[in-house]
Amino acid sequence: MPPKKDKEVKEKPIKGDQAEEMVLQYLRSVNRPYASTDVSTNLKNKVTKPEAQKALIALAEKGQLTMKLYGKQSIFVYNQSQLPVLDPEEFSQLDAETKEVQGTLDERRKELKTVSAELASMEALPKTKELGREINRVDAEVGTRREIRKLTHQNTMTLAALAPFRGDGEAKADPMSAADRDVIDKGWIRWRKEWTDRKKLYKSIMGILGDAGMVANQAEFEDEQGVEVDDDEAQEVDRGEFGAGAVIRKVAAPRAPSAKGAAPAPKAKPAPAPAKKVLGKRTRSESASQDKSGESAERDSDDDDE
Hints:
The protein contains nine helices and two strands.
């Protein structure tokens, strides 16, 4: 069995003069009107209700309390004439202290309002466990905004390009004819072929010179000979939509109408390709003999001139 709890020792209620003194001290300290029931309750029942009623009536008869009847209930308050009266200087000092305390109270209220607002804003922020989801949401919004700006820019550029053809307040531009487009396509095909052929030829020549040992460093050789290679713009064009990977619309050349019964024109034979000169490695004796023959030829030409 659990041990029995010790019975709480109840305090004996106060009676007589002690009860009157306790009630008087209480009403003077609070300086508020109370009934006997309220006084007994506020004193934690140290003075019972009947004893509190007797003490209040006795103190009222002595002139230390003032009694007022409200219906059947009696209300008691400390006699205000027995309270100390402050002189004007004390009133002024008390008024100044009150204003100072009121100013401090206003400042504290402002600080409390500011701190409360900061606390509310911090509580509104996402929690640590929610940061990952919040970051993903912000990234999605940023990506959407970038895509919108990109599409808006493309739309603006497209509208600006189409404005001359729509004739919005300006002279309407005539669209390019098929013949003009054919001329441009033919010119582009021709000159791009010339460009690629020359690049291949130059690459082949540099390979032959390199194999023969005549060019050790291609970059230095090109710099000495003043060879200009393709700049960044040309390389960008070659890599772009008009370069090697482009699908160019080939335009067939129009055929002249042939008369009925006329014999077809004979096909021209292709011209024979020029013989390629192969540069091999020269020995020292061959180089020396060629140099001597060149010098003798120069001397003969000088004698003829004289």
